[in-house]
Specification:
Blueprint (H helix, E strand, L loop, with lengths): L1 H9 L6 H17 L2 H12 L2 H16 L11 H23 L7 E4 H10 L5 H16 L7 E4 L11 H10 L4 H15 L4 H21 L1 H8 L3 H9 L10 H12 L8 H13 L7 H13 L1
Parallel strand pairs: 1-2
Helix pairs in contact: 1-2, 1-4, 2-3, 2-5, 3-5, 4-5, 5-7, 6-7, 6-9, 7-10, 9-10, 10-11, 10-13, 13-15
Protein name: MEI1 protein
Organism: Ptilorrhoa leucosticta
GO biological process, one term: meiosis I
């Protein structure tokens, strides 16, 4: 089925949302649900289909073109197609890297547009934001060096006109710039305050990957980002309201991040003791799977 469906997609235009959206979803789930021995073949089939990749290129570009001033509150058919496109491309990046699959056609993405989509949001639906963040995680994990992807944007080539104080740091973080990093971190923090479960999971995962990327590039910058005082206020905000327990997956994962990068001004021995105490008093067998995994990672990190 991958052959006819992927060929069908390649014959469509981005406006053919009724046909394209379920087709891209089928390709996405075919990659994720197939057996490991078949997954490599599935990736090769999709990456060898040049017309499909050209179609995906057009779909990604529509993200910046289909941005009316007032988006509907519900997920429109256009936005649903964009979600499917970004998720499929993120998966192709992941599996192409894993299996070192031959690439017949590259995709080009404007990094500035991707970052601005998260930083400024511009009334984009939550699911579309989550999909774009999945893509951003994929490129961060590969250090922007995927053979499937060509990154373009204002920071893809070091410029002599950059402000001198930040030029060395910008060079180390290339193709990211320091200002973009801090704007992205602040925006991720703000998105977490919304306390939307799906959005919170994606935001924390993106923040984890971003700090890991920064740590490889420049440890001082990574530690500086992880120890921003605003993170502590963010934790108190997440713990406010009806559910004050530390045993929330996003809270545990944030705590793990701060412990990993030794942000003692954000998480103290007192908070660590409180989490251990709550875990000791909880019925671990009744904890949701996401909470159990997050607690396991936290205790291992401690």
């Amino acid at each position: 089925l991958l052959f006819p469906v992927s060929n069908l997609c390649g014959k469509c235009r981005p406006r053919d949302t009724d046909l394209l959206q379920p087709s891209l979803n089928f390709l996405y789930w075919s990659l994720h649900q197939t057996t490991p021995c078949s997954q490599q073949r599935a990736v090769a089939v999709l990456l060898s289909n040049v017309s499909l990749l050209e179609l995906l290129q057009k779909v990604l570009e529509c993200t910046w073109q289909w941005s009316p001033p007032s988006r509907p509150a519900y997920l429109s058919s256009e936005d649903a197609l964009l979600c499917s496109g970004w998720l499929l491309v993120a998966s192709l990046l992941l599996y192409q890297h894993r299996y070192n699959t031959e690439v017949h056609q590259t995709l080009s993405v404007d990094l500035t547009e991707v970052l601005n989509a998260v930083i400024f949001r511009n009334k984009k639906p939550i699911l579309l934001l989550v999909s774009i963040m999945q893509f951003l995680r994929a490129v961060l994990r590969q250090n922007f060096s995927s053979s499937l992807l060509v990154i373009v944007g204002q920071n893809t080539a070091p410029s002599a006109t950059q402000p001198q104080p930040s030029s060395l740091q910008d060079t180390a973080l290339h193709p990211l710039a320091m200002q973009q990093v801090f704007s992205l971190v602040v925006s991720l923090q703000n998105l977490l305050v919304h306390k939307e479960l799906l959005l919170s999971q994606a935001v924390v995962a993106c923040l984890e990957t971003l700090v890991e990327y920064l740590y490889v590039k420049n440890q001082d910058v990574a530690l500086h980002v992880a120890s921003q005082p605003w993170h502590r206020f963010l934790l108190f905000t997440l713990l406010s309201g009806g559910q004050k327990s530390f045993l929330q997956p996003e809270v545990l994962r944030l705590m793990t991040l701060f412990v990993r990068y030794q942000s003692s001004n954000i998480i103290s021995q007192k908070e660590i003791s409180q989490i251990v105490q709550e875990a000791a008093e909880a019925n671990l067998a009744e904890l949701p799977e996401a909470t159990s995994c997050a607690l396991h990672l936290f205790l291992c990190q401690v």
